[in-house]
Specification:
With 223 residues, the chain is an alpha+beta fold. The protein folds into 2 domains: 2-90, 3-Layer(aba) Sandwich (Glutaredoxin); 96-212, Up-down Bundle (Glutathione S-transferase Yfyf (Class Pi), Chain A, domain 2), CATH 1.20.1050. It has helices at 11-23, 55-60, 79-90, 92-96, 100-130, 138-161, 174-187, 195-204, 208-213; strands at 2-6, 27-31, 36-37, 40-41, 68-71, 74-77. A hairpin with a 2-residue loop joins strand 5 and strand 6 (74-77). The structure holds glutathione.
Amino acid sequence: MLKLWGRLTSNRTQKVLWTLAEIGIDFDFILASGVMGPGGHVARGNTPFGVVDTPEYRALNPNGRIPTIDDDGYVLWESNAICRYLVMQYAPQALYGNDVRTFASATRWQDFENNELLPPQHELVMELVRLPPEQRSADNLARARAAFNKRLEIVEAQLARTPYMVGERFTFGDIPIGIRVHRWVLLEAERPRFPNIERWYAGLVERPAFQRFTADPANHVEG
Ligand SMILES: N[C@@H](CCC(=O)N[C@@H](CS)C(=O)NCC(=O)O)C(=O)O
């Protein structure tokens, strides 16, 4: 059976969990982390899940990071590469219409999420949730918020043109952006209005695969 190492609160692990839920295959989930464990972040005195520093895990993933998969002896790390592998191997029709251009466009949104949305949102999570209050900075928070909202204008413009990030149907390109938007909704009580993002997000939260691992706020905004 496919094995996945990670933790529910990791946004990169979340991409893989949501993808696996869309595909609908069974897997073993092995909790692993150097910085988080039951109860939250080590900064709050919690013991990490561990595993990531063991020689066995480093042999699978020399970065000592999560997620990693082992699919019947085929080992892969880097969350977006894992998602691409899983959709090509198990659900090309369902998750990109088995079409090369749809596939490439979906990977474009994976890259956009990783390069543009993730860095400012990481700052937002640190400033709003994870850092001890005395280490937080109002300037950093304002900068991160402005940068994130600016990138969302690009998502809004795409969703004004197409119902989903890539055309008429849900694809794996919706998953990473969907996770960012879900976190943003949970983190920020006051948000600028993006009507097309709101319409698209309302559809995503209805998906059983989203509800399975991704919906729970505890996996996103608790530190
Ligand atoms: N580019 C890598 C980054 C992996 C990464 O930084 N993962 C974080 C969790 S989202 C991690 O390993 N954090 C340390 C830990 O939990 O031990 C990927 O997308 O898989």
